[in-house]
Structure formats: C-alpha cells, structure tokens
Amino acid sequence: DEEAKTQALYCLNDLVTDALHLVPDCLAYLSKLQCSEVFRFCAIPQVMAIATLDKCFHNADVFTGVVKIRKGLSCKLINNTVDMTGVHAVFNDFAVSIVDQAQKAKASGHVDPSFDRTIQICDTICELTKVESKKAKSSKRFAMGILTVGAV
Question: Model pTM greater than 0.85?
C-alpha cells in the first residue's frame, strides 16, 4: 500500500543519512594515508559509495529493481581518485546533489523526517571539502567537465 511505500522511502533516506554521517571520519582517515597505491585502494571504494548513496537517496526504484551508478561515471570516479583534492571534489559534488534532491522533494510536498538531518550533514561535508574542491575544479582535469555528477 501507499503508506508502506512512504515509510520504506523514509527508512531508506534515514539509512543514507546515517551513512553520510560517517563521511567526516572517512575523509580524515584518507587524508592520513601516505602511499599513493594504498590511498587509491582505500579511496576508490569510498567515492563509489558516495556516488551510490546519491543514486539511492529518495529513490523508490531501490525497492523494485537494480539501482547502480553508470559505468562511465565509475570510470570517471576511478580516474579522478588520485589525491585528496580529487576525493574532496567528488564528495562535494555528491553532497550538493543530495541536498538538491532533498530540497526538491521538500518543495514538492514530501515531509521526510530525515531531510533536515540530511541537509545538515551534507552542508558539513561541503564545508569540509570546499577548499580542495575549488582547487580541483580550477585544475585542468576537472575544468574540462570530467567530473559532472548530473551528466552521467
């Protein structure tokens, strides 16, 4: 029934929000890694995870089918995960995307109890990543549109 679907979506959004609360610790851990191979080994799954959280957030398709990030986006994420600047750019872009989704859902009348917490933690992620993200976006590899969340 419709009430069960609504409650399921609330639960999903709450799970995504809980996962987003782990991002500050994740970024702190990644920033301590010195070896580039170990960094990439640890960072690539994390950028894939935030991309997947973005894809799953407020997405009822999670309950009826397979929800995955596209191969092209996966390739872009892997190629750009070479340093903390790239990681920060990815996390920033997806945090902004999740906030946009939450605000659009709120504006269209959805009253999800986790939306305010979601927006708050995404704002925190944006604050943590904004300096490095700006550096990445001004560098050549990101300025050419390699990392565009909505396009892929």
Answer: yes
